[in-house]
Amino acid sequence: MSEFKFEIEEHLLVLSENDKGWKKELTRVSWNGAPAKFDIRQWSPDYSKMGKGVTFTNDEFQKLVDEFKN
């Protein structure tokens, strides 16, 4: 299996935190060296582990934001 890499480039918003310190966050993440995308998922306190999440391109995220404004 190939190596999986990620880099959190920007922490934008903490949506919630559980009693074990895991945070559900909106971040900008680069996956395997690709340009960063908007991402919502849970992260362990040291950011070494992650839960399932959803990733958006810039265009997808902008569409989501625009729809909430209407």
From TrEMBL:
It comes from the Bacteria. GO terms for molecular function: DNA binding. Residues 19-66 form the Transcriptional coactivator p15 (PC4) C-terminal domain. One of its GO terms (biological process) is regulation of DNA-templated transcription. This is Transcriptional coactivator p15 (PC4) C-terminal domain-containing protein. It comes from Pseudolactococcus insecticola.
